[in-house]
Amino acid sequence: MNDRRDLVVVRPPAGALSTVDGLSGLLVDYHLRTEAEKGVPVADAAGLPDRYRAEAEDPDRAFAGAVVLVARDGGAAAGCVVVTAPVDGRVEIKRLWTDPAFRGRGVASALIDAALAHAAAQSGVRTARLSVWQWRTGAVSLYERFGFSVTASWDGRAGLVCMERAVESATPFTGKAS
After folding, report:
1. Could you read off the pLDDT tens digit of each residue along the chain, which spans 178 residues?
2. Could you give phi then psi for residue 69, rounded to 5 degrees?
3. Distance of CA 105 to CAs 23, 36, 73, 101, 176, Å?
């Protein structure tokens, strides 16, 4: 069983993402790992494609209109997730990442819980969707445990699995979860 006593999920205020301790590093690590898994390893953030590097350098601009949630474990940034603004009754969950040092402690589950609670609190949202690389089998299994199922692709990139699930009404996410 995961011990989540020191784990909280916070929603930093819009316009302040660049000041969130550890967020930039989480985003860089996510993209470095993804590029390596795609067979295009880069040494550091400077080698990332512009659009990915921009997320770490200016997350407020990159995620304008979206909600970014950060998991903190004992005060350290342990993970993050992005929930896009609703479009046609759907939100997209993106950039779910847990720092490898914090894996196995329920960080990803807490972030998905918070992301789904946020989605449920949005007026008119019926569906949450996400995409995940097929080789991330652990992530696919995690999403399936949360009720996501594979659906027709909305993204033409090879190796990308698209998933979705219904969003039920829930108590709004207020900015902290434990």
Report:
1. 455 578 999 999 989 999 999 999 999 999 999 999 999 999 999 999 999 999 999 999 999 999 999 999 988 999 999 999 999 999 999 999 999 999 999 999 999 999 999 999 998 999 999 999 999 999 999 999 999 999 999 988 888 999 999 998 555 555 655 4
2. -115, 140
3. 19, 25, 9, 10, 17
Strand runs (DSSP E) across 43-175, as ranges?
67-73, 76-83, 90-98, 127-133, 149-150, 160-166
CB 168 within 8 A of CB 120: yes
Type of residue numbered 59: P
Global model pTM greater than 0.85: yes
Is 155 in a helix, a strand, or coil? coil
Q: Exposed e or buried b for every residue in 23-42, given b needs 16+ CB within 10 A?
A: bbebbbbbbbebbeeeeeee
> Which residue reads 């390596």 in tokens?
36
